[in-house]
Write a structure and sequence with these properties.
The protein is built from seven helices and 16 strands. The chain is of the alpha+beta class. The longest helix is centred in the C-terminal third of the chain and has 24 residues.
């Protein structure tokens, strides 16, 4: 979170697997109810409804503004950020993003979605919040994670942003993004998890809990039977092989360019891929894109003379 005059600039990465801000990360899950649920540790109350944040898994949708879920998750993200400053009443500028090739088409609609209420009062984790949403901007996902360090991208580089739902690719040549060579594919870590579940059922007639799959993908191991672990690891390696195959389809050549990986899927490259560490850089900061949104928002605000 950044401060611009009296406005809190909050970057929010609306992922399909996790919501990220500059300082926190929580699952993109939400369950609505008309009555107070049994477990209320991450409960958000708004507009007469109860929302359990981080519960379940929101299914993939190409349009994030088709229901209220991402809006409510945005409110939770804002609360978590401003609570760090012990603030409950604040003017907020939302800095968000969309996959590279979707930004130009969906930016206006997503911005309108984020700005649907000028003032919002709600309760999160038993704390009352009142926020004024004074502005919002939508930036290219993945690129935001490196925007502040573009000067370091000498020569030819391939940026690969691996999220839960999508993989975004962008070529950067001598610090300049090439808008004619950017791609979005539905090949995020969720596809890897689906393949793991399929193989576990096929080979072992067993269902592996999502939490265990996530732990293995992040750490490379977990406390489960060796045969089960071998199946997960083998499947994850096949998935990362698929990532590099898709990269090559988009003219990636490790001898001619460096690869810069961002996003939650970077841990799969680190744990399961075979690569030259001198030619592949993995940014393990899962909040890097949200931080990048804040940087880009400050550039926007300063360029506009502070008009939000």
């Amino acid at each position: 979170m950044k401060k611009f005059k009296n406005v809190y600039v909050i970057g929010i990465d609306h992922g399909y697997g996790n919501m990220k801000t500059a300082n926190c990360c929580f699952p993109t899950g939400i369950m609505r109810s008309d009555t107070e649920p049994t477990f209320i540790s991450d409960l958000l109350c708004w507009n007469g409804k109860y929302y359990s944040i981080g519960v379940g898994h929101k299914e993939f949708t190409a349009d994030k503004f088709t229901d209220e879920d991402y809006y409510v998750l945005t409110l939770a993200a804002i609360a978590r950020e401003i609570n760090r400053e012990r603030v409950t009443d604040a003017a907020v500028f939302i800095a968000a993003g969309l996959p590279l090739t979707w930004v130009s088409e969906q930016r206006a609609e997503f911005k309108k979605y984020l700005l649907q209420h000028g003032e919002v009062s709600y309760t999160f984790r038993n704390v009352d919040y009142h926020i004024q949403i004074v502005g919002a901007e939508v930036y290219p996902q993945g690129f935001a994670a490196v925007a502040e360090k573009l000067g370091d991208f000498k020569g030819v580089n391939m940026l690969c942003d691996i999220g839960n739902g999508t993989m975004n690719l962008l070529r950067i040549v001598n610090s300049k993004p090439d808008a004619q060579r950017m791609f979005t594919e539905k090949y995020g870590t969720h596809q890897c998890a689906l393949q793991i579940r399929e193989q576990m059922m096929k080979l072992h007639h067993a269902t592996l809990d999502d939490a265990i799959i996530t732990e293995i993908l992040k750490k490379g191991t977990a406390d489960i039977d060796g045969k089960y672990l071998d199946t997960v690891v083998k499947t994850a390696k096949e998935y990362t092989t698929g990532i590099f195959r898709r990269l090559r389809e988009h003219e990636y050549d490790s001898k001619l360019m460096k690869l810069y990986v961002v996003g939650g899927g970077g841990c799969l490259i680190r744990n399961f891929a075979d690569f030259d560490a001198s030619r592949v850089i993995v940014n393990e900061d899962i909040c890097a894109t949200a931080k990048g949104y804040e940087y880009m928002a400050l550039v926007t605000l300063n360029r506009n003379g502070g008009v939000v």
